[in-house]
Structure formats: C-alpha cells, structure tokens
Amino acid sequence: MKKFGLAGQIFVALILGIVVGAAVYGNKTAIAFISPIGDIFIHLIKMIVMPIVIAALVVAVAGVGDIKKLGKLGGKTILYFEIITTIAIGIGLLAANVFHPGSGVDMSHLAKGDISAYEQTASATQNKGFADTIVHIVPKNVFESMAQGDLLPIIFFSVLFGLGVAAIGDKGKPVLHFFEGVLEAMFWVTNQVMKTAPFGVFALIAVTVAHFGVSTLLPLGKLVLAVYVTVIFFTIVILGLNAKMTGTNIFTLIKILKEELIISFTTASSEAVLPNIMKKMEQFGCPKAIVSFVIPTGYTFNLTGSAIYQALASLFVAQMYNVHMSLMQQITLLFVLMMTSKGMAGVPGASFVVVLATLGSMGLPLEGIALIAGIDRILDMIRSAVNVLGNSLAAISMAKWEGEFDKDKAQDYLDSVKETNVA
C-alpha cells in the first residue's frame, strides 16, 4: 500500500482550502478566524531561513577554504543566472505578444488594489544607481540585514566569515563544528515545521479564495492563463533542455521535489522550501559547498518564474491601455527588466515592485498594475514553484560545470526515493 505522505496531505489540504474558502466567501469573521493559521506557518518558515543560510554558507566556504576557487564558482554562477533569467524575460515578452492578455480587458469591472506601499518602495529603490546597489551588498549591520530578511548582504557576510574561519586553521575548527551543529539542528527544526505544512496550506488557500472568489479571476483569466502556460512551457522546454545538458531529466527532478513544489505553489513562497531543496540537492549528488552557495544566491539572482511574470505583466498593462510598443521598445524593456529585477532583490513583494519601477521607466501608466493586485497571489503561486525548480537545477548545473557531481550518489538517492514511494 502506498504511503499517504506529506505531498498527499498537502494536496487534500489544498482541496479542502478551496472548498472552505468558497463556502465562506466574503465572510470577514471566518477569514479572521482562519487567517492566523496561515500566518503562523509563514512566520515559522521565515524563522528558519536565515540561520540555515548563514550556517550552510559558513560551513561550505570554510570547507572550500580557497578564495580563488570560490571566486571562480561565483563568477560561473552569476553568468549562468544572467543567461537563464534573460531567456525567461525574453519568453515572457514573446508570450505577451502571442497571447495579448491585456487586449479587450474591460477595466470598469476591475477592482483596484492598494499599491501605495509598493510605489514608495519602487521609487525609493529606483532612485538608487548601480553603485548604490553594489554598496547595499555590503551590510553596515549584519543583524539589521538578518532582521529584514535581506539575503544579499547576509551572503556577503557569511562568505567572508567562512573564509576567516578557514584562514585561522585549527583555531577555527570549534567555530566550524558549531555551525555544523547549527545546520543539523535547523534541519531537524525544518522537518518539524514541515509537518504543519498541510494546516498552513489549508489556511492560506482558504483565505485567498474567501477574499477574492472565483469571479475576480474571470476578467483577468487571460492573463492568469498566459502566465501559467508560459511558465509551464519554460519549465518543460528551457529548463528541460538545461537538465538534459547536465544529464538529468526535468521530470525526474520534479518527482524528487514534488513536496517542495506543492508547498511553494500553495504558500506562494519559495522561501518555505529553501532548507529542504538544499538538503535534497546535496543528497542528489551535489557537493555541500556548491549547494550552499548557489541556491541562496539564486534566491536573489535566479528567479525565472518572477522574470516571466514581470515581462508579461509589463506588456499586459501596455496592451490594456492600447499603448503599442515597437520591437525596439520591447528590447529596451528587456534590458530595463534585467537591471530592475536585480536592483529590487531582497525587497518585500519584489516582483510587484519590479513591474512598478519598469512601468515608470518606460512611461507606462502605473495604475494598470493596481488592477492585477487582486490576483497577484494566484500568479505568485506558479512563479514561486518554478523559482524553486530553477534554483535546484542551477545547483546541479554548477556541480556538473565544476566536475564535482556525484553520479553514483544521485543514482542511490533516486533508488531510495523509488523504494519509499513503493513502500
């Protein structure tokens, strides 16, 4: 008999959440009662992310100990991220021209969302130049960056600290053992938190459906369909080809990460599964040093699902207001998105802020994005899932590129996963 695992429990919770959400649609008392359950789950996830990222990076870098080797890995990783996200933006723009999701939308039937907080963030971040973005990478207070959940400065500090631990030799060994202990302890905590995932998923989905209902989707159904079809196409074709080049099958990777993909999809948060995908990619044959560097960095630089959404949403607004954008303007838009998506890294609601900043720089109406604020969570679900898959594949690609991928370990892990599924 097949075991009713976490993935099955989450799927049941998802269905129940939709049913309960539809039943209590518009009922503010019911929403207020269910909402804290989802909020607690998200808080639990955010609680474990920072300690794991710091401990994993310190252990990985101290293990490598060679600044030249680390610099080489860093350069290759950033190059890989830039290529793959640029392809994602290009596919998003192409899809917008094929689907025309903004054409013929009756704006009078759409409710406007409040985007004032996003507008302030977008203008504040947009005013920063490239030099300011580089300065931001270096934390002035590492605890402040931890409190804000800002990954880039944390990555910088952890890498530098890990190099320091390696440089002091035997004196650094107790520090290294401490962080190894922290990492193991946090993985245990993660396993306990994941047991509550079905409750969190149920609450988050129920609240989303209860808030917006099915009727909200209908006027913007074309945009939802365009985003989902494009992201699935990108996953199967682009990530599929990428996986094949590394000797992996994209569907095998999806099978390995099925629980993490369901959790990231239903919670609309890729952060929710960061510890799990790091652990699984290590079990799948990627060295700890590569996994611990590539995946946390990818959470800032390799958000392919978000890149597709940003491109589609930008052209959606232009089409909705009947603004024709020439080929040259769209090429300009691609370069603008390449810059703004990196500059907004670590900003809460980053995808939304990126679109706002892009619309402003291209002279498109900012009010347009307020009309899709209501369904942003539904779009966020699919882009979070593909962000998780893309970063897991990035770790495999880098391990292969460095010639450090362990094929035997990967096969042993696949065999153990098959046995678990059969049991």
Automatic annotation (TrEMBL):
Keywords: Cell membrane, Membrane, Symport, Transmembrane, Transmembrane helix, Transport. InterPro entries: Na-dicarboxylate_symporter, Na-dicarboxylate_symporter_CS, Na:dicarbo_symporter_sf. SUPFAM superfamilies: Proton glutamate symport protein (SSF118215). It comes from the Bacteria. It is a multi-pass membrane protein. It is found in: Cell membrane. This is Proton glutamate symport protein.
